[in-house]
Amino acid sequence: MTAAFTPAANVTMVQLLPGEAMALLASVKLGRVAFSHQALPAIRPVNHLLDEHGDIIVRTHSGATLLNKALMSEVVAYEADDLDPDARTGWSVVVTGTATRVSDTAELARYEALLTPWVDREMDQVVRIRPDIVTGFRLQRTASR
Predict the structure, then answer these.
(1) Is this structure's pTM higher than 0.70?
(2) pLDDT value of residue 139
């Protein structure tokens, strides 16, 4: 007979400092961007990189809803995590900030070289998310009593 696992047994949730949260975000390549579309929440998985200023950079295509949001400098949220469902540990980071289209040709070329799309589609646009609010939490196991 298998012993039942108590959901909260020896696991605590700790709030991350913004710098630690951004370092964790930089350690993964996939996240989710959340924005408003037709007055409803929309979430899209995208790959990303963090530039030297701490901005989140994603590539997209010309008809993407996200690009339309960036053209209007709208606020979006970006979330990434690394969770272990068996151990019930890991972390999650959410960044809220303004999305803008990258239009500088040198920047475009640089980001296109550094960030390869995961889908077989022309991704000729680059969006920058400048962090205004950074939050994060770590689920960690504590010592048994």
Answers:
(1) yes
(2) 92
